[in-house]
Specification:
The protein is α/β, with parallel strands linked by helices and 513 residues long. The protein folds into 3 domains: 239 residues, P-loop containing nucleotide triphosphate hydrolases (Rossmann fold, 3-Layer(aba) Sandwich), CATH 3.40.50; 175 residues, 3-Layer(aba) Sandwich (Rossmann fold); 74 residues. 33% of the residues lie in helices and 24% in strands. It contains 17 helices and 22 strands.
């Protein structure tokens, strides 16, 4: 019988992970510069820093995805130099990446037990035993997931939880989390933190990468700050504060992020009117967006916010209701039609839906305007470079070349590439839909994005801002629309918006059920 749901206890004092002189270079950039620090068992250590600080590169070296150019990783006195993730796993190291490492066509239980499928004495996969063991893990995580369900049919949040359950099942000595809560609701985050506390009590070495200050102070014991690939400082979480931490990360005081925004106070006529919108996932959704207005969408995961965005952008079929753009009825059957009318979307999952990762910055910026860049039968390379160069300069995208592949950029710089695409001088964007635009982005870059959003509004663009972080929705949007079960549960002006009030609207049905 499989016994995978009980985390083994070890002597935390004996558990130690050391990074000694780690260095890693890529063409044109030094990603890590002689890093030296350690993490102890029974404690949660946060890795923090701006996008591009080197956090993900360090985790990839730890997991065997990359090899360090110099230095060593030592786990409990033994040098570790894994040449692959599977080798790292065998050494007791599990890394849960921000980019999910799942097989969509396979079931939840097969993904949880990937690489260790239970077999009978005849070496046949024991599906009944695997289902039972997977269900035990799922129950421990308090999730309504069927172990037989294909992972590809799950929501983004539940896929992330499957990743966590997969690492939990391995019972590794080192478990590293890379932005694990980016797609999760507060309820799911609470369950995840329970499991992390359990791992901590069992003496595991836990690394935790997050840009969310509140959860770093809630779950971690120590914090290591990196900047430009260098070690800056190690803090004991209980002995520091948010202001001190931000200063160590960005090298400056960013002040009160929201108070410093140059907000738009004058709005134009309605540019987008939605009346009784019906799709497979949303019902009777109505709202109005004015020129220069920032309209925020709040709600729990699965409430229908992303589905509204997809319908407006021509990704999902509209089954009923009416959409008007500048007073004229429209019905987009494809994103191409929406783009032609000035509707732009920065999707929730920028890596899977927003970018062609193996293509250059230049290619990604020019994608929606390729027809405008044709010179006869050929692409005008000089104009394409000018377009991309303008985006790099305008949004301070960190790169040494326009030919750099977007997969090599940090999350914040990837987001800036998408913004540069939709606001280039070749585009006539009238409505900009931003779905979780700050997910996985550091505090310094978040502040930049907030200023950009206000600048878009100042330019007369109507902005729809969707976010799971209530604080930023409340402080950035002029009006907050709260969704619940595919419907609008309420509309709240910024002056009256509070986290308690928004959550009450978002959860009212569930709370009274």
């Amino acid at each position: 019988m499989l016994e995978v749901h009980r985390v083994k206890r070890v002597n935390a004092v004996e558990q130690k992970l050391e990074f000694q002189g780690i260095r890693k270079e890529f063409p044109g950039v030094v990603a890590l510069r002689d890093l030296n620090f350690s993490a102890l068992g029974g404690r949660v250590l946060a890795l923090m820093g701006e996008n591009g600080a080197g956090k993900s590169t360090l985790l990839k070296i730890l997991s065997g995805d990359l090899r360090a150019d110099a230095g060593t990783v030592v786990l409990n006195g033994r040098v570790q130099d894994p040449s692959s993730p599977s080798e790292a796993i065998r050494a007791g190291i599990s890394v849960i990446y921000q980019e999910r490492q799942l097989i969509p066509a396979m079931s939840v239980m097969e993904n949880i037990f990937a690489g260790a499928l239970p077999r009978t004495k005849l070496r046949i996969v024991n599906y009944s035993e695997m289902k039972k063991a997977a269900q035990e893990i799922i129950d421990r995580f308090e999730l309504p997931i069927d172990p037989l369900e294909p992972v590809g049919k799950l929501s983004v949040a539940y896929r992330q939880m499957v990743e966590v359950m997969k690492a939990y099942r391995r019972d590794s000595t080192v478990i590293a989390f890379d932005e694990p809560t980016a797609s999760l609701t507060e309820t799911e985050i609470a369950v995840l933190f329970k499991r992390i506390e359990e791992l901590k009590r069992a003496g595991k070495i836990i690394l935790y990468v997050s840009h969310r200050m509140a959860e770093v102070f809630r779950i971690t014991d120590d914090i290591v700050v990196l900047k430009d690939g260098r070690f800056v400082r190690k803090f004991v979480t209980a002995d520091t504060n948010e202001k001190e931490l931000i200063h160590a990360m960005v090298g400056r005081d960013i002040g009160d992020t929201y108070a410093n925004l140059n907000r738009n106070t004058v709005y134009g006529d309605a540019i987008l009117e939605v009346d009784g919108l019906e799709t497979k996932s949303v019902h009777d959704v109505s709202f109005r967006l004015r020129r220069g207005e920032i309209l925020g969408f709040a709600g729990l995961v699965g409430a229908g916010r992303t589905e509204v965005a997809r319908a407006l952008f021509g990704l999902d079929p509209v089954l009923g209701g009416e959409i008007k753009l500048d007073g004229k009825p429209v019905c987009f059957k494809s994103p191409k039609e929406a783009i032609a009318q000035g509707i732009a979307l920065c999707p929730e999952d920028r890596k899977e839906q927003g970018l062609v990762l193996n293509h250059s910055i230049k290619n990604n910026v020019s994608i929606p305007v390729l027809e405008k860049l044709l010179k006869g039968l050929f692409l005008n390379n000089a104009e394409e470079e000018a377009l991309a160069g303008d985006a790099v300069e305008k949004y301070a995208i960190k790169t040494h070349s326009l030919e750099k592949k977007t997969m090599e950029l940090s999350g914040g710089n990837q987001q800036k590439v998408i913004l540069g695409r939709w606001t280039s001088y070749k585009m006539d964007t009238r409505v900009l839909i931003l779905d979780e635009p700050t997910k996985g982005i550091d505090v310094g870059t978040k502040a930049e994005v907030y200023h950009m959003v206000c600048d878009f509004a100042k330019a007369g663009i109507g902005v729809i801002f969707i976010s799971s972080e209530l604080t930023e929705v409340i402080n950035l949007a002029d009006t907050v629309l709260v969704m619940r079960n595919g419907r609008i549960a309420g509309s709240v002006p910024r002056e009256e918006a509070t986290e308690e009030g928004i959550l009450t609207l978002a959860m009212r049905e569930e709370a009274t059920a």
